[in-house]
Write a structure and sequence with these properties.
Blueprint: E1 13-20, E2 23-30, E3 33-40, E4 47-48, E5 53-54, E6 72-78, H1 95-101, H2 106-109, H3 116-131, E7 140-143, H4 158-173, E8 184-186, H5 197-204, E9 210-212, H6 217-220, E10 225-228, E11 231-232, H7 236-246, E12 252-259
Parallel strand pairs: 6-12, 7-10, 10-12, 11-12
Antiparallel strand pairs: 1-2, 2-3, 4-5, 8-9
Helix pairs in contact: 3-4
Length: about 270
């Protein structure tokens, strides 16, 4: 069944966290009808969200130091890199497929899967109620600007789309106005796909890829910030956004649907 929603509408997404066969999942209904969404979630016990792995002193992950400026860090589940085939005609329901689909501007195109940002945001919200109560101390939601500031077509995708819907959920369900604000900008157009960590360090060494928008200085001063991205991988983008924010705000809660540090998953 195709579902079409206007951009400013919040559809009747009613999600919940369930236990099934020893694992934990996000499941939901859309406008009272069961919808085939099943996000497998990370169990927090013994899990280090900064490295993206079970706590293990032998882990060689280098991500944790890059997230040190975040006061709290969490993710929903593992992101499996890959390709979602024929996404115009099928309805993939797992977390990885939805993150991949959300990289396209589905809302603008009127695509039937334009509810995916709502689902990802609701999953973040439902899980926070159980495992991440600090998120509800946030005063402002700030998305990671995954697009170059002049690329208008990409400004409703990835982290931005999720953050906007999370703000709506806070207002609707928590009766709390936590605005989504574009406090950060990607001011330098760089490509890091396929790069080694050493090459990424070289790209980001001057901390000039992301910038703080000065018109928000008074607005965010002393505020708690929920920094939202769609995926955290090696942590370079998160580090640069945290650096840009840290001297202007109180606390930063870094939260996103996916983590890709799967090679340490079974340690």
């Amino acid at each position: 069944m195709a579902h079409f929603f206007e951009r400013d509408d919040l559809p009747g997404v009613s999600g919940k966290i369930i236990e099934e066969h020893g694992s934990e999942y996000y499941r939901c209904e859309i406008d009272g009808q069961e919808y085939p969404v099943k996000y497998e979630l990370i169990r927090p016990s013994g899990f280090d969200y900064r490295t993206g792995a079970k706590q293990n002193p032998q882990s060689t992950s280098t991500r944790s130091p890059r997230l040190v400026k975040a006061d709290y860090v969490q993710q929903l589940g593992y992101y499996e890199p890959g390709y979602t085939k024929d996404f115009c005609t099928m309805t993939p329901s797992d977390l990885s497929s939805h993150i991949r689909l959300n990289k396209n501007n589905l809302e603008k195109s009127g695509h039937p899967l334009n509810l995916i940002p709502n689902l990802l945001a609701d999953a973040l919200y439902q899980r926070a109620k159980k495992y991440f109560p600090k998120l509800f101390d946030a005063d402002i939601i700030v998305p990671v600007p995954n697009y170059y500031k002049l690329d208008k077509e990409s400004q409703e995708t990835k982290a931005v789309s999720i953050a906007k819907h999370l703000s709506k959920i806070f207002l609707k369900d928590e009766k709390k106005d936590v605005p989504c604000e574009m406090v950060l900008s990607k001011v330098k157009d760089v490509t890091t796909k396929g790069k080694t960590n050493q090459e990424k360090e070289e790209i980001y060494k001057n901390h000039d890829v992301f910038g703080f928008n000065s018109e928000f200085t008074d607005i965010v001063r002393g505020k708690n910030i929920a920094l939202i991205d769609d995926i955290t991988t090696s942590g370079f983008v998160a580090r640069e956004c945290l650096v840009a924010l840290k001297n202007h705000v109180n606390k930063i809660y870094f939260y996103c649907p996916g983590t890709t540090e799967k090679k340490w998953r079974r340690w």
